[in-house]
Amino acid sequence: MSEQQSTPDTPLKKLVGEKTAKALAGHLDLHTAGDLVYHFPRRYDERGEHTDIRSLDVGEQVTVLGQVQRTAVRPMRQRRGNLLEVTVGDGSGGQLTLTFFGNQAWRERELKPGRWGMFAGKVTEFRGKRQLNGPEYVLLGESTEGEAAANEEIEEFAGALIPVYPAAAAVPTWVIARCVRVVLDTFTPPEDPLPAAVRATRNLVGLGTALHDIHRPASKEALYRARHRLKWDEAFAVQLTLVQRKHRASAAPARPRPARPDGLLDAFDARLPYELTAGQRDVGREIAADLGTGHPMHRLLQGEVGSGKTVVALRAMLQVVDAGGQAALLAPTEVLAAQHHRGMLDLLGPLGRAGELDGDPAGTRVELVTGSLGAAARRRALTEVASGRAGIVLGTHALLYEGVDFADLGLVVVDEQHRFGVEQRDALRAKAGQPPHVLVMTATPIPRTVAMTVYGDLEVSTLSQLPRGRSPIASHVVPAAEKPAFLDRAWRRLREEVAAGHQAYVVCPRIGEAGAGEEEPPADDTGRRPPLAVTEVAPLLADGPLRGLRIGVLHGRLPADEKDAVMRSFAAGELDVLVATTVIEVGVDVPNSTVMI
């Protein structure tokens, strides 16, 4: 071990020796002093504190802090020699057996009842008991000569905090702790990137102090301050990256798509059967202004289900079509893409059927591109898109594939943004000659702080009003097992809504009838039933509490045309109840449905 001063770039082999450095590199990808210093403990143990041995999972590689309770030696059945079993406890009643094979009398003398130690290995189970076979370990207090080197630095934390690191079988946590100690004793931290004024304003400790105290905290307060500073650094780095991305995007050139008087958008507004909310008008003006600039729009539109995001997005798409471009909407499921297609065609009327007998010559065409389209329909749709005759294109991931080419893609709308990665968003943007404007939408309420962190590269608009006539949503939890009468009342409440002319959803977490990719889950250890499935619940309801109602079934394993037919029937009011998986969760909109169980 070397005592020379080290920097973040110093190779570990110069500090901890070649053999240990090779193990750290091979098993944990740690090569330099900086790598090791930023390899933070995953938790901290205290002697006498509960490790909760009972929560360990079989097959898990663990490090536990425990106290030796008893030892027993017995002859092995299959071969010569003895087996040493050591029972350790965590102070809360949990016990773990350590098993050592062969004649190892010295271990029995070493692992005396009452000794505390850290034990590392893979959890197995034998005759209902959790155990570690031949674990690595280090004992705390009263070190023997052989333990002294490994134990010396651990003992600094005796009675205080013992760091437990993400480790490997060949590199247990106490070896990492020993290496960290050597490095910290010689480590010159990098210059603190945060100015002193910022640190003072935010009550942040210096970087060098934080890096020392995250590994060797003198107290819980010191540990809290170190964690707070290092977490702040991580969040700050994310923010800087997002701001840089935002500046790069805003500096890129984009073709302006300004509003055109007396165009498609004005004609659409004139035929809308209802009045836009004040929020829709305000957000519409923000988006219209963004589209008219020479830099690409990057805006997040959030709003509850039913707040009118789709109409806002459609108005933006029509502004782009008025300016000679095309707009594409990317939806996460075929059910939602098909619903957007039907909904937009209904809203546009003749304006969305240009070239057809009853179409408006001044209108455009709306095309749907999904993976389940037949060959002939796909060729026709792709021709309409490539020629530019289709001003509005709706689809699923199929829009991202090769062969889907646009004449002039000016706007990309991504629905339910959390279902898509940045790569998918970028793949669609790459289909434009110049960077297109981008509008992403979500119905998941996002607090401002989360929006800044996750969508810091986007401007955020929020629709907080519901359209006139929409009732606020009331949610209730029914403890079905404890109060079955409450569940009976829930089904009666659903029937009351249907009797009043409305419709209902019943949502289940599984499809059922185990097929490809789905196993029937057993009841868990507590005896609780597995999650209910659509194919089980639908017949139970049809023969039971919902007897006589028109019930449909919808899930992801149905063929696309069957899914579409079921949603059309439900939207047309031909079904009273739709029993479905969460395939309906992303924006499926049937205003007449008033209850969901």
From TrEMBL:
Keywords: ATP-binding, DNA damage, DNA repair, DNA-binding, Helicase, Hydrolase, Nucleotide-binding
SMART domains from the UniProt entry: DEXDc (SM00487)
UniProt GO molecular function: helicase activity
InterPro entries named in the record: DEAD/DEAH_box_helicase_dom, Helicase_ATP-bd, Helicase_C-like, NA-bd_OB-fold, P-loop_NTPase, RecG/Mfd, RecG_wedge
Membrane-spanning ranges: none
Boundaries of every Helicase C-terminal domain copy: 486-597
Pfam family, one: DEAD
Domain of life: Bacteria
Location of the Helicase ATP-binding domain: 290-463
Database matches in PANTHER family: ATP-DEPENDENT DNA HELICASE HOMOLOG RECG, CHLOROPLASTIC
Protein name: DEAD/DEAH box helicase
Organism field: Micromonospora echinofusca
